[in-house]
Amino acid sequence: MTVTTIERLADHVGQTVTLRGWLYNRRSSKKLHFLQLRDGTGIVQCIATLEHFGEERFPEIGGLPYESAVTITGEVRADARAPGGFEMDADKVDVVSVSEEYPISHKEHGPDFLLSNRHLWLRSRKQVALMKLRDEVIRTIRNFFHERGFLNVDAPIFTPNACEGTTNLFEVDYFDEEKAYLTQSGQLYMEAAAMAFGKVYCFGPTFRAEKSKTRRHLTEFWMCEPEMAYANLDDVMDLTEDLLQTIVEAVLANRRADLEILERDISALEKIQKPYPRITYTEAVEKLKSTDHKFEWGGDFGAPDETAISSEYDRPVLVHRYPQEVKAFYMRRDPEDDRCALGVDVLAPEGYGEIIGGGERESDLEVLRSRIAEHKLPEEAFKWYLDLRRFGTVPHGGFGLGLERTVCWLAGIEHVRECIPFPRMLHRIYP
RNA sequence: UCCCCGGUAGCUCAGCGGUAGAGUAGGUGGCUGUUAACCACUUGGUCGUAGGUUCGAAUCCUACCCGGGGAGCCA
């Protein structure tokens, strides 16, 4: 017997095949059961009749609890009445396991309940669609960099002495009397790798012990960080634009059905075309001031500021040349305005805020040393990093893209916690 | 750390001083193809915890715990 999956049913019309999955929903009348089977690739309705199964088996089938594991064999039929266009006339229903009463219904639930049942919540239609979207984004990112000659060079998860303070870092014991920290960013390592391979990227989990309880924060999230040797800020901005455009197009081309399940406003994504607007921080501040927004030059943007700026555009906006005080020590100063750093943040449309942060790095040894001193950082910890400026230093830059925030925006959902299979958040580490 | 909102049936919520409710899930029966199916009946509760006010508290007060949203923070 041919075993297949629900997404491939179109290839089997008129044939008898076996599907293996779980009972998603069922409805019954006197002589018919409508069994909705899900298998991770889709949902299909299977028809079981009293006539075929008989007085004994028919009620058993109709009494199966939701999420019972079943394999169903039958003939595939195209049927306009069925959602998805195909149905199966069940010939055999084999019960692999009878589920206990399933806690998650097709009605609404609260976030606490759903998060505590994340291991089961993942089976729900929207969550399946969201994980497929995430997968699409990840694969597109990897292909994007591969096709452009970037080498995937991953950064370590354990890192030594904290760069600046330890309040935002997760500390772990590292053998005897030594502390290690979970990485916040692979960037410094990518700078080393870029000097070895030219163009590189890392893609992995990062950890931040920030006590943030907002829809944009996770304590563990995935970040993709490309880094390029012989690159300036404009090269970095071009790359962010190309990457985001490629992702948007891939999602529209390959995940339209999932976007529809997520009830995403697809037209908003279709409007996104290069070039994206590029404005300086200073211009952004002027825009804020021209509304009734209170903002002074020199501060970093908060979430409401980012929303105000991005709401003027129907595509991502690149904000560049921030005050150097709000940016990291390794950011190169703007040669034309010493107050500014050559950094860029990309703000997603529709109020989703920052999804990319990056810029051109300081490549001069002495300038970098004085920055480290200004920031009161221990030079000892950066000895290896400073070596990169001793041995063949070149202009270089890159950025970090937050995966969950990007998926959140593309999917048009409320909270990043749904964009990662098992979210880690403040005071929540189960399941 | 701060501000706002909430905690009542497995789940989602109503009730806001006078005997604990609905929808849904579960159970039983019915139904000519249903689409979050529908119809009838039905099981199910230390009203977050501990004190207090009151003749009487799910309801008012205090403290604590837990959750949600936001601020700060997010090189």
In short:
With 431 residues, this protein is an alpha+beta fold. It is 31% helix and 28% strand.
Explained architecture:
- The protein is an alpha+beta fold and 431 residues long.
- The protein folds into two domains: 2-97, Beta Barrel (OB fold (Dihydrolipoamide Acetyltransferase, E2P)), CATH 2.40.50.140; 118-419, Bira Bifunctional Protein, Domain 2 (BirA Bifunctional Protein, domain 2).
- It is 31% helix and 28% strand.
- The protein has helices spanning 50-62, 111-116, 118-121, 125-147, 187-197, 233-254, 256-261, 266-270, 281-290, 303-310, 365-374, 383-390, 403-411, and strands at 2-4, 16-28, 32-38, 43-49, 69-78, 86-97, 151-152, 158-159, 171-173, 179-182, 199-207, 220-229, 278-280, 317-323, 333-334, 337-348, 353-360, 396-402.
- The strands form three sheets. Strands 7, 11, 12, 13, 14, 15, 16, 17 and 18 form a nine-stranded mixed β-sheet that branches. A five-stranded mixed β-barrel has the order 2-3-4-6-5. Strands 8-10-9 form a three-stranded antiparallel β-sheet, with no helix packed on it.
- The mean pLDDT is 91.
- It binds one RNA strand of 75 nucleotides through residues 25-34, 36, 45, 47, 65-66, 81-83, 101-113, 115, 163-165, 167-168, 184-185, 187, 208, 210-217, 300, 302-303, 326-331, 354, 357, 375, 427-428.
